[in-house]
């Protein structure tokens, strides 16, 4: 049926229905929070009192006396170096054992069934044609392989597993995938939490060499048991997810098909995952067959663990150890900030010959160890207010904490701030372990307004009509932003308190609608979550077929 777009009477009635449906809803309900959270929590703690070494805040407790400077004794700042895998903690190297090539230990411990396919050949050719890439991988891996091989063999697992970081991250502990998998073993955030890998503002244990290796081998052991000792299925589950592999097996069982790795239907990445792993294994077993040479790896610890008992800047720790900053970060990649918090970081890793140097230099160090500390916002505030309270410029506070413009710091947020002489206490454990930062747009308080969608309306059309985004309407009403309404439906939008969305006079609207002129209505600013002041509402025009 054809409908004329000049039927102004119909357009006006539809318009008045929409305007009549706009009303403030005074039910005390607050708008959904628009919060960006960084750290271990989804929402900020509300009403939390000031915590941390900068509390109490001078501006809030004027009568509080100034704290006396804390005298640091660097001799208490670190413990003696130990081998994290040594039962007695002494880290003594067996000279005869150390002379052996670590690659020999890896090869003799292989225990998985081999996969032989064209995909394996394809990946062998890929690596063989890139000797420089293989060299870089093995150079990086030389820092970590001894520790991983020791852990693998201590658990009685096949030593091929020590090669898995070659295909996960090329042994780059700072690797971050587009899917947010991080670290040498490429843990996703939720899987990392399942295996006790802390992720907060100050550290991400998915990148921690010791913690991530422990978690990865725990996970792989669990997957191997889950799939009845089939390592190929376990590796597929490590890449694709155990639930996906189980469902693929169930589909094959229902169809009367085999359920081994090569028989399952899976994404291309997982289809190539085990062949790629097998190719690396084959190269390690006989590099000369591929025109490659692997550098000899020493069969002793590359690093020792040094217990940390005082907060210390990353740059200071690297300098005391006599290491370039990048080398220090390669062994301690879990640090998210330029300061190491003793309460949240039990140890740092240092090369075998650097650990003793670090402890000796630390004992005679003069001056502060840390120039940064943590401060917890006692209430929601502007960054300028926070900067004033902690004695920093707003620009510097924004830069070091990566706070975008026009954002509020929510109550309970942890910020990195300069450490003052009178605030020299180390960050307490509950702050170090739960540090997060939550930000919200710096906008006026909002109120909820009821509107009505007409039959045939889309979320995009409503967004244009009320000068808000389709994403906002979808989030406020828990609908998809591509929704088309099959019948009239009550919805809500949020507008700044004090703004009005009111129907215009019927006679004036009718005259304008008949003349095909825009109808104006008072509303809110387009950037404040409501309709724009003076926005133009044109008569509805129904499309012709």
Automatic annotation (TrEMBL):
Residues 449-493 form the LysM domain. The keyword Signal applies. Gene3D superfamilies: 1.10.530.10, LysM domain (3.10.350.10). Residues 1-23 form the signal peptide. It holds the Pfam family LysM. Residues 535-545 have a biased composition (Basic residues). Residues 28-53, 523-545 are annotated as: Disordered. Coiled coil: none annotated. The keyword Signal applies. Keywords: Signal. Belongs to the transglycosylase Slt family. This is Membrane-bound lytic murein transglycosylase D. It comes from Sphaerotilus sulfidivorans. The lineage of its organism: Bacteria, Pseudomonadati, Pseudomonadota, Betaproteobacteria, Burkholderiales.
């Amino acid at each position: 049926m054809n409908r004329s777009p000049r039927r102004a009477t119909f357009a006006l009635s539809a318009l008045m229905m929409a305007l009549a449906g706009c009303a403030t809803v005074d039910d005390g309900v607050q708008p959904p929070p628009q919060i960006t959270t960084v750290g271990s929590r989804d929402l900020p703690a509300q009403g939390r009192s000031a915590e941390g070494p900068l509390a109490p805040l001078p501006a809030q407790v004027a009568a509080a006396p100034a704290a006396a400077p804390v005298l640091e004794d660097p001799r208490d700042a670190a413990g003696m170096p130990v081998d994290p895998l040594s039962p007695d903690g002494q880290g003594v190297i067996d000279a005869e054992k150390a002379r052996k090539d670590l690659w020999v230990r890896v090869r003799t411990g292989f225990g998985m069934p081999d996969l032989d396919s064209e995909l394996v050949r394809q990946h062998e050719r890929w690596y063989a044609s890139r000797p420089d890439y293989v060299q870089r991988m093995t150079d990086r891996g030389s820092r970590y392989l001894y520790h991983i091989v020791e852990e693998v063999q201590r658990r009685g697992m096949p030593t091929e597993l020590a090669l898995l970081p070659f295909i996960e991250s090329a042994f780059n502990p700072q690797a971050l995938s587009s899917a947010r998998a991080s670290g040498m073993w490429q843990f996703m955030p939720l899987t990392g939490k399942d295996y006790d890998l802390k992720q907060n503002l100050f550290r991400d244990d998915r990148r921690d060499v010791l913690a991530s290796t422990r978690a990865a081998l725990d996970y792989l052991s669990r997957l191997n048991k889950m799939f009845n000792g089939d390592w190929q299925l376990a590796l597929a589950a490590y890449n694709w997810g155990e639930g996906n592999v189980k469902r693929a097996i169930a589909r094959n069982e229902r169809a009367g098909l085999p359920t081994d790795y090569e028989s399952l239907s899976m994404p291309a990445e997982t289809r190539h995952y085990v062949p790629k792993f097998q190719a690396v294994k084959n190269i390690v077993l006989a590099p000369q067959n591929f025109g490659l040479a692997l550098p000899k790896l020493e069969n002793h610890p590359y690093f020792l663990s040094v217990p940390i008992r005082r907060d210390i800047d990353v740059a200071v720790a690297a300098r005391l150890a006599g290491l370039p900053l990048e080398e220090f970060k390669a062994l301690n990649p879990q640090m998210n900030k330029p300061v190491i918090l003793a309460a949240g970081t039990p140890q740092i890793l240092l090369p075998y010959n650097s650990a003793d140097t670090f402890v000796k230099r630390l004992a005679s160090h003069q001056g502060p160890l840390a120039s940064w500390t943590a401060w917890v916002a006692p209430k929601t505030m502007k960054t300028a207010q926070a900067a004033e309270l902690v004695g920093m410029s707003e620009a510097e506070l924004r830069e070091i904490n990566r706070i975008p413009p026009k954002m509020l710091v929510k109550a309970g947020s942890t910020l990195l701030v300069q450490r003052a002489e009178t605030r020299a206490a180390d960050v307490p454990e509950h702050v170090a372990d739960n540090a997060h930062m939550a930000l919200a747009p710096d906008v006026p308080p909002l109120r909820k307004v009821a509107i009505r969608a007409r039959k045939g309306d889309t979320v995009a059309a409503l967004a244009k009509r009320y000068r808000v985004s389709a994403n906002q309407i979808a989030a406020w009403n828990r609908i998809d932003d591509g929704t088309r309404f099959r019948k009239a439906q009550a919805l809500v939008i949020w507008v700044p308190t004090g703004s009005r969305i009111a129907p215009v006079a019927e006679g004036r609207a009718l005259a304008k609608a008949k003349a095909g002129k825009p109808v104006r209505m008072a509303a809110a600013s387009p950037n404040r979550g409501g309709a724009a002041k003076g926005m133009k509402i044109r008569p509805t025009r129904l499309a012709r077929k």
